[in-house]
């Protein structure tokens, strides 16, 4: 396992370092089945839709619950950067958390089993992914070399074996796959039954469609880049919340020298959202993704952008410059991105670094950038 000692992680999966963020417009009954795995963690529930509806949190869970009135009260005029009637409202939970790691999950997801019939501990697996390095500069054909029972293969340069710090762990789904509305309409009965026992790093410079259903990340490293956009009621687009966050966060990870892993852990996604409703919500996004993806692929951030917040401000500026010609909506989105960073910084004031007396010191550079990185383990 490339010299990493992960003993203890399975038994004590950092319960004081992880917040679980759940956006919901339905009910939280799904938490009953998750008790063995999630009950030890603190929940941040973002209740979407009508705030007068009382939602019940299953007994025994430790939680904070925010509805739209709370978001308006806490953020004041800046609350307009948080989506309404879209799962993207979850990013409010990322902003109010004070923990190192976030795990976010949808309310129609359940515990999946691996092929041996064992229930999957999603958080333990995400933490393993996040606590071990990524390898974005060269692909390891046996996938994640930091998993037990595997290593770097022959021909893997020793100078790259240290890897880089992992910022995002993107988990997958059994049963209902994360398809767009047209694919759902064409294949209404398709189910994902294929459990692939693999975790891999998404290479540097490569984008991917990030789904928010089963996602963990290090908020200290990339929290400000995890903005789920301005979607839902009052906006021309929905359901691209996680996509927007995923493209931006990957560009930020590439810039700052962090890694993104995808693959295990799996959960069980139980409910297909209505494809006709989804098509209505998504149709502009289906067109715009042909411009949004090349936009992110061609983004080059300046050297001065050495924190996630600074990168994000630069991305906002470029969004306004390059995407407003696609639709005036992008100007509004770019402004909302700035508001998001302002709100983030207000709720997460910069910490003073005692050694250097510097505020928000730049992140440590990675090996590929020519500086030393010390691996744990
Ligand atoms: O207006 C809304 C709609 C939904 N939510 C909550 O968001 C998550 C995901 O919603 P849902 O299960 O309906 O959507 P899916 O199509 O199955 O999920 C994928 O779509 C993504 C885009 O938003 C999402 O990240 C994917 O997982 C549930 O918890 C809903 O309750 C909401 O808060 N407001
Ligand atoms: Mn769903």
Automatic annotation (TrEMBL):
UniProt keyword terms in alphabetical order: Cell wall biogenesis/degradation, Glycoprotein, Golgi apparatus, Transferase
Cellular component aspect of the GO annotation: cytosol; Golgi apparatus; plant-type cell wall
Record EC number: 5.4.99.30
Spans through the membrane: none
Compositionally biased intervals (Basic and acidic residues): 366-377
UniProt key word Cell wall biogenesis/degradation: yes
Protein name as catalogued: UDP-arabinopyranose mutase
């Amino acid at each position: 396992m490339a010299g990493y000692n992960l003993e203890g992680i399975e038994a004590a999966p950092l319960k004081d370092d992880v917040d679980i963020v759940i956006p919901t417009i339905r009910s939280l009954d799904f938490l009953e089945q998750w008790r063995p795995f999630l009950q030890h963690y603190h929940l941040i529930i973002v209740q979407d839709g009508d705030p007068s509806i009382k939602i019940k949190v299953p007994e025994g869970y430790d939680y904070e619950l925010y509805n739209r009135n709370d978001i308006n009260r806490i953020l004041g005029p800046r609350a307009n950067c948080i989506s309404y009637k879209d799962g993207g409202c979850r990013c409010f939970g990322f902003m109010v958390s004070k923990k190192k790691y976030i795990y976010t999950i949808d309310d129609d997801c359940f515990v999946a089993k691996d092929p041996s019939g064992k229930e999957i501990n999603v958080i333990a697996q995400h933490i393993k992914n996040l606590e071990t390095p990524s390898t974005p500069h060269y692909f390891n054909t046996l996938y994640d070399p930091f998993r037990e029972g595997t290593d770097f293969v022959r021909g893997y340069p020793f100078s790259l074996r240290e890897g880089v710090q992992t910022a995002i762990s993107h988990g997958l789904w059994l049963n209902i796959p994360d398809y767009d509305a047209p694919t759902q309409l064409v294949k209404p009965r398709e189910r994902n039954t294929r459990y692939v026992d693999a975790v891999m790093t998404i290479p540097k410079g490569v984008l991917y469609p990030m789904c928010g259903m089963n996602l963990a990340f290090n908020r200290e490293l990339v929290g400000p880049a995890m903005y789920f956009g301005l979607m839902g009621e009052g906006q021309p687009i929905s359901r691209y919340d996680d996509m927007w966050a995923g493209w931006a966060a990957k560009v930020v990870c590439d810039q700052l020298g962090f890694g993104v892993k995808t693959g295990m852990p799996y959960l069980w996604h139980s409910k297909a959202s209505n494809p006709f409703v989804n098509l209505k919500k998504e149709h502009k996004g289906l067109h715009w993704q042909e411009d949004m993806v090349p936009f992110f692929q061609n983004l080059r951030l300046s050297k001065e952008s050495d924190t996630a917040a600074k990168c994000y401000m630069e991305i906002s500026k470029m969004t306004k410059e390059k995407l407003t010609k696609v639709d005036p909506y992008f100007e509004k989105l770019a402004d909302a991105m700035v508001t998001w960073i302002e709100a983030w910084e207000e709720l997460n004031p910069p910490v003073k670094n005692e050694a250097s007396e510097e505020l928000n010191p730049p992140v440590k550079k990675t090996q590929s950038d020519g500086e030393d990185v010390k691996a744990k383990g």
